[in-house]
Amino acid sequence: MVTFDRRWLPLNALRAFDAVGRHLSFTAAAHALGVSQSAVSRHVIGLEELLGHALFERRPQSLVLTKAGGALLPTVRGSFDRIEHALNDVVRDGGGLRTLRLQLPPSFAQKLALPILQAFRKDFPDIFIDFSSLGITGAPRTETDVAVIYDRPRTGEAVSDLLWMSRVTPGCSPALAAAHQGKTLERFIADNELLHVKLEGEPPGIIWQAFSRHFGLGVRTSRGLAFDTAALAAQYAASGEGVALLDRDLFATDIAAGTLVTPFAETFEDGYGYFLHLSADDLADPVIAVFRGWMIRNFARGVPS
Amino acid sequence: MVTFDRRWLPLNALRAFDAVGRHLSFTAAAHALGVSQSAVSRHVIGLEELLGHALFERRPQSLVLTKAGGALLPTVRGSFDRIEHALNDVVRDGGGLRTLRLQLPPSFAQKLALPILQAFRKDFPDIFIDFSSLGITGAPRTETDVAVIYDRPRTGEAVSDLLWMSRVTPGCSPALAAAHQGKTLERFIADNELLHVKLEGEPPGIIWQAFSRHFGLGVRTSRGLAFDTAALAAQYAASGEGVALLDRDLFATDIAAGTLVTPFAETFEDGYGYFLHLSADDLADPVIAVFRGWMIRNFARGVPS
DNA sequence: CGCGATAATGCCTTATCGGCATGAGCCGAT
DNA sequence: ATCGGCTCATGCCGATAAGGCATTATCGCG
Predict the structure, then answer these.
(1) Among B271, B244, B291, which residue's Cα sits nearest to residue B148?
(2) For the residues B259-265, what does the mean pLDDT come to?
(3) Domains and CATH numbers, chain A
């Protein structure tokens, strides 16, 4: 029995096999490869002898893959596809700056884009990040490689990696907190304007409602103002005009800087989180895989700032 | 400028490039490939001319990849790795039965393993599933391709695909439900034994506690019995000895059969879910990718039965 | 039954691949 | 400085595998 290693990969034969598997015809494959039918025939036969298994079942009218052929073909085809693309990429731009298109939700972009992009560029100066913002929820809109989305865990064939689960707590300006010093959480909320963040497909106020229900607060939550993004709500809260439910990690810098305060210990996991979202096929692209790994590792050490 | 297609993939040159990239030395690469240094040198030079970009920077003492080389190498190496493995797989067993090792949590295995395995085997008769349960006592099998785990959404480099989020509701035997006919949810829970499922890293009773808090029930939840698996708790509940929080999807067949009833409309999403868990690298294996896609598509149409 | 498909095969040509020997830089030790 | 040892590049040549052409075998179809 032969075992294969790098020194002896029957590459030309594999290319012939790939073409035949694609066209399911020796003649057509030969034509596609620009060689004669006999050459292709030889290659495939040689490969079959090497493997000790037939790759195609020759039928009078048609050619069909054997189990062995079926097992081999997807790998071979995928590999050649990737090599082909990689070669053309290099020819085109010398592999100089691979650009990775990234979409971020607005609040995330506003708070974290800079530290992330700077840190990533430091580690991978040759990967150019073309980044754009998108709506707060939902799937990425345009052609993009990787997107961060704010969503609940969802099913789907796309690869979806959790960066962190959102954990919210009431936040407001220091002045407002001081003015209501000593009040209970329930009283504090009842006495102040509530700032909501709109979420696609959810009724407004749902997060405040879930929050108050979770902590058993008897307050009416369907009042106040609603904003498109968390960052806007936070900004409004910082001006002293109300209290918003803030993601502690997302607004860590504001809290540290003192422009926002979180007077209560109660934090609530609302089932939403920030996910890195990309197509399963794209994971085969080393640049995208590298970026994914880098993001996951970085956020595992806590949300950057 | 040349553009590459299948007909002119310089495969032998790429193999040489891969080896040189691995060893960062023409001589060492030549030795590893079992050919002379000159052959390797020619190949790399030829490839560089084809691409119009240098792949290595020749320095007196050392060889370093150029940007173009760095962009190309991971793809080429990964592709050859996969081809090498695929070829050896075929040699070994003719690609006949690719076996995929699958691990399932006990309750999941008990309720869903059969329908899933049967349906999958019908669609892919050539993939043999070697499935094992994450037994309570069973030694954790590290050698596995894909696992279903019951967990909260977590961060990590492994690819984690949500199958469905757990949604629980009180369930008990029909007799017990009849005996307490007409009671409110609060009363019903207060008057019956509570059956818990133990979760690693969580205090016992946490789900009942979250459930009652979510619906504003004033009942004590830290009482009753705790079980290792949801299936055990459900079985106990079916015997009429208490009320358990059941995942509606997981126990759909029991509910349909009437051995368990869920007398209340209140369902609660507890933040846990069933995830398909696999290594990011493994996604390059067509068999594993196929299984992943199949599972995701199937569960998207609802939990099988 | 012959015609038109297909893939397999024998024979021959070719050019790709690779080996050997050598050359050209560069480094460090004597 | 010079020489030996190391690296990769190159000229030349031979082996061989890759491929072309023409033919054969097999099957389906009109």
Answers:
(1) B291
(2) 95
(3) 6-93 (1.10.10.10), 98-162+274-300 (3.40.190.10), 165-270 (3.40.190.10)
Q: How confident is the model at residue B143 (pLDDT cuts 50, 70, 90)?
A: confident
- Taking CA–CA distances from B1, the nearest residue in chain A reads A91
Token pair in block for residue B59 = 């320095």
Q: Residue A193 has which token pair?
A: 């304007």
Tokens of B147: 């696992």
Mutate to test the interface with B, among A80, A161, A214, A298 (most CBs of B within 10 A): A161
Which of B15, B34, B213 lies closest to A9 in CB terms?
Answer: B15
Give A181: exposed, middle or buried? Use CB within 10 Å, 0-12, 13-18, 19+: exposed
pLDDT of residue B201: 79
Q: How far apart are CA B254 and CA B250, in angstroms?
A: 9
pLDDT (tens digit per residue) in B39-48: 999 999 999 9
| H helix or E strand, kind and range, residue B88 | helix B67-93
Burial class (CB in 10 A: 0-12, 13-18, 19+), A178: exposed
Mean pLDDT of A57-63: 84
B107, burial (CB in 10 Å: exposed 0-12, middle 13-18, buried 19+): buried
- pLDDT of amino acid B138: 44
On whether any CB of chain A is under 8 Å from the CB of B205, the answer is no
Q: Which amino acid is at B255?
A: I
Residues 6+ apart with CB under 8 A from B172: B192, B237, B240, B242, B243, B244, B260, B261, B263
Mean pLDDT is lowest, of A97-101, A231-235, B210-214, for A97-101
